[in-house]
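Record 1 of the preview.
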Amino acid sequence: MIRLTHLVADVVAGTIEPRTVTVRAGRIESIEPADGLVAPGVLVPGLVDAHVHVESSMLSPWEFARTAMRHGTVASVSDPHEIANVLGEDGIRFMLESIAGSPFTCWFGVPSCVPATSFESAGAVLDAAACARLLDDPGLQYLAEMMNWPGAIHGDEQVLAKIEAARQRGMQVDGHAPGVRGDAARAYFARGITTDHECFTLDEAREKAALGVRIAIREGSAARNLEALWPIMLEHPGQCMLCTDDAHPDDLIAGHIDRLIARLIAHGVPTMAALRAATLHPIRHYGLPCGLLQVGDRADLVLVDSLASMRVERAWIAGELVAEGGRCLVPPRASATPNRCRAGRIEASDLVLGAPTGARTATVRVIVARDGQLITGRQDLQVPCVDGRIEPDPSRDLALLAVVNRYDPAPAATSLIAGFGLGRGALASSVAHDCHNIVGVGADRASLARAMDAVLQAKGGLAVVGSDGSVEVLPLPIAGLMSDRPAEEVAAAYQRLSASARALGSPLRAPFMTLGFMALLVIPSLKLGDRGLFDGERFVFVEPAVA
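->
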């Protein structure tokens, strides 16, 4: 039995009162008015990340859960589409098996878009029949983000069949509609899609909230939307949830949903509204088995020092103390390392951006990376052509971006990109959303080839080639997405590589996270897939250079 006497935040009743909470056999037996001394701190329900890709933490599912529990997170609504794009159904099974036995709830969904589009090469395909079969698995609980928003809007047969399979089973369908507004948004959400975590302006969030959509305010490592969106919490508090979507290991160690709540409260969002966005709303929306600090509930409790700081002192799941003083009390566990990556080499001669025949100059469609955003800009710039090639020009912040198919031998796709600020050297990664081919960016072709080849030879990971030609690699042996090492070790290695990237001139806060999204075709406006440069607004390939 556990008896705790503190201030208790009741997110159902909307009160914060001194109470004595008694826990027996993992459930809350009683909550009574405090009689006597009230201990410091506030008890709140366990926190929930309403949309996250565990793979983006670069940690195994078990290690991700251990790290999140330090911050009072007891559950995550998790879309395993990263590993599904690499390993298909086997990857999803790996995720389920890897978390089995943890007190943490990974509420896994069925990836709806493997691959995200038909315009790129993935390691697997999950069609409507496969999704329906997976939805019958007791370990999979909802249809994960429908990234093929044009297909949903225009009635693609496979897209509608996947949505219908979820609706027939009474499951939620998550949304993904970046910048989709007006009639297009109405058509998209009319399909039965209930959430969106892709809003990047307040007006967009307001418009979607007016349609009845639940807005998941995202603050991850690459996409940071809280500062733009927090006022929606004042206008539509009952429709808001909190999520990270993609959080790299160093950010996850520093904080999780706990710090998002603290930031919202600091902005003037009412405390109860901020807490409900991280507890009541996702738990009820998805039917999570987590407790809400009510009599009879599973005892998922978090003791924070104050509601202003949300600093977690202790956390319990089903009455089990899982974290205390910033440490997770659940022991680590070894992970298997399933993977898929072809053999071969990548040479500088493979990474040529061809110029228009006979041209001395060309107009190049340049991708513009934006710090803290998944969306990109576009510039049309005049550049010189040399011997039938277009070369990067660090003096103009024009780097060479390349994507190479990791599954089968195929020609590389190349384009120019601005915003990475590389004066020299190169970066490469096998974390390249969502098909996870090998993506790289470099100040010159030779450095870029070395970085991308280092990733290929490691069968997945992150790599930096320095100005002296040295190569640093963080191996990711689990599907080329995750490490099998402890969180602190992975975070330290990731921070070293990020520092090396910044030493090459990159101003980006998270250069590898930003790089990983330069291949995500479903986020506008320009992206580069393994088959070429893609206009994410019109959903068509475009030539990288014209005369």
